[in-house]
């Protein structure tokens, strides 16, 4: 991931943006004083114009009387004058388009300018601008992204498979997981439902209900600036990256039949004889469940010395294999095994999927990171936190284990929750309930 400057120029979702309790004298394109003419729209912005040290965890709101809000833009500028203004703030309108509320928190210390436009019943526009300054974040405790999906040396230009999750690793533990989840927006060109899960306090993983639809771009916006991730710990900058999802390739391997099939865009294109892990010891059995291809090597050393077995010990082995494609963190690979004379007949490996050299070469060349590899009937289950084993967790359980407890529609702006402070979130929820009730 290439971190975005805290103050880049980046328009998102056609930006309707925000800001502070300011009554508009405004400018109008019509003559509001004619008999029978509609009253001019009056715009209020909160926080108020000229406010200092505005809490960056609170939302911006724009309200309109006698009209509908048609556009809001927010510019956040580094007071040092470095970089371009950040215009990435987006927000949501209520049903009657009389109130706009920002999606994200403010960049700490930024100078914020909000410009809002509303139309009255005659289509005449009123425009109002308000400015304020966000408070500075405390020194010392600042959350940063340590790694993302491309942590294993992948380039953001690399196409990924339809099973690829979004993986975010932080440099500090996160306590306010719901607020941080709500600040991380995943947007896809084709509709999908997805949710975050946490593996420890430093890793968040976003997975969809079904595999991504192929041939699209997925954008990940980490709107972490101003988010209180733990008591006294705040995000300081926003960043983003894209994943380019390629064709769909799904591999199924049957432990019982010792065969592997590869399906490309819904059609079977290859079938191979294979040999999986022998069942003489539990540790040798290949795990059942959906794995994902993670990395690949043309020449790779394999040995059980990683398990503490030393040369000269019973059962010690060391092999250098060709065309190794990793599918777990516990040493499961698909790879060439020219020595294995029982491909398609028996399971004799130490847990890997053995293949003929030519077959392994083909699979190596045709694999993208994030391609699903589904192993069946081995009697040993894949663990959800083993490599990228996230697909073995049922969808209902995945949503339940998210901090927000609900899925997000990746084809729409915003997320399933709010990164704002608790008090403000409660007020927003009350307002939404009243609006839906007709209050």
Task: Write the topology of this structure.
Blueprint: E1 27-28, E2 42-46, E3 61-65, E4 68-77, E5 91-93, E6 99-102, E7 111-119, E8 125-133, E9 142-143, E10 145-147, E11 159-160, E12 166-170, H1 177-183, E13 184-188, E14 193-198, E15 203-208, E16 216-222, E17 228-230, E18 233-235, E19 239-245, E20 249-254, E21 259-264, E22 267-273, E23 289-292, E24 295-303, E25 318-326, E26 333-336, E27 353-355, H2 357-366, E28 372-376, H3 395-401, E29 408-409, H4 422-437
Parallel strand pairs: 9-18, 11-19, 20-28, 26-27
Antiparallel strand pairs: 1-8, 2-3, 3-6, 4-7, 5-6, 7-8, 10-12, 12-15, 13-16, 14-15, 14-29, 16-19, 17-18, 20-21, 21-22, 23-28, 24-25, 25-26
Provide a descriptive summary of the structure in words:
- The chain has 439 residues and is mainly β.
- The protein contains four helices and 29 strands.
- The longest helix has 16 residues, at 422-437.
- The model is unreliable at 1-32 and 423-439 (pLDDT under 50).
Could you estimate the helical fraction of the residues in percent? under 10%
Bulk shape: elongated
* Low-pLDDT sequence parts: 1-32, 423-439
> How many individual helices?
4
- Judged by helices, strands and strand pairing, the structural class is mainly beta
How much of the residues is beta strand, in percent? 25-35%
Largest sheet: 5 strands, antiparallel
The end-to-end distance, rounded to whole angstroms, is 46 Å
């Amino acid at each position: 991931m290439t971190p975005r400057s805290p103050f880049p120029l980046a328009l998102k979702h056609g930006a309707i943006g925000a800001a502070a309790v300011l009554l508009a004298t405004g400018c109008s394109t019509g003559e509001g004083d004619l008999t029978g003419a509609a009253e001019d729209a009056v715009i209020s912005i909160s926080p108020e114009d000229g406010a200092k040290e505005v809490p960056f965890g609170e939302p911006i709101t724009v309200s309109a009387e006698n009209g509908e809000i048609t556009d809001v833009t927010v510019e956040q500028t580094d007071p040092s004058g470095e970089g371009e203004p950040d215009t990435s703030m987006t927000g949501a309108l209520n049903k009657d388009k009389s109130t706009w509320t920002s999606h994200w928190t403010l960049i700490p210390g930024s100078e914020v300018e909000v410009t809002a436009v509303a139309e009255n019943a005659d289509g005449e526009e009123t425009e109002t601008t308000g400015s304020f300054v966000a408070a500075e974040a405390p020194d010392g405790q600042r959350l940063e992204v340590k790694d993302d999906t491309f942590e294993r040396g992948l380039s953001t230009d690399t196409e990924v498979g339809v099973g690829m999750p979004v993986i975010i690793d932080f440099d500090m533990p996160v306590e306010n997981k719901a607020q941080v989840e709500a600040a991380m927006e995943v947007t896809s060109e084709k509709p999908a439902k997805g949710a975050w899960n946490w593996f420890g306090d430093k890793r968040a993983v976003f997975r969809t209900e079904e595999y991504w639809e192929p041939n699209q771009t997925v954008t990940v916006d980490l709107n972490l600036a101003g988010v209180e991730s733990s008591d006294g710990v705040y995000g300081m900058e926003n960043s983003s990256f894209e994943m380019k999802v390629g064709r769909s390739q799904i591999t199924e391997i049957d432990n019982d039949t010792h065969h592997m099939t590869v399906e490309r865009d819904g059609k079977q294109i290859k079938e191979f004889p294979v040999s999986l892990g022998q069942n003489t010891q539990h540790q040798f059995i290949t795990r059942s469940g959906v794995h994902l291809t993670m990395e690949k090597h043309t020449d790779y050393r394999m040995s059980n010395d990683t398990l503490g077995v030393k040369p000269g010990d019973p059962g010690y082995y060391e092999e250098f294999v060709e065309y190794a494609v990793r599918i777990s963190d516990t040493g499961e690979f698909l790879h060439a095994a020219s020595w294995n004379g029982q491909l398609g007949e028996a399971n004799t490996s130490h847990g890997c999927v053995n293949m003929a050299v030519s077959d392994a070469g083909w699979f190596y060349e045709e694999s993208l990171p994030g391609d699903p590899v589904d192993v069946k009937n081995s009697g040993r289950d894949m663990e959800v936190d083993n490599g990228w084993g996230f697909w073995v967790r049922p969808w209902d359980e995945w949503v339940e284990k998210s901090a927000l407890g609900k899925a997000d529609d990746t084809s729409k702006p915003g997320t399933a929750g709010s990164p704002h402070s608790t008090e403000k979130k409660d007020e927003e929820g009350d307002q939404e309930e009243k609006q839906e009730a007709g209050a």
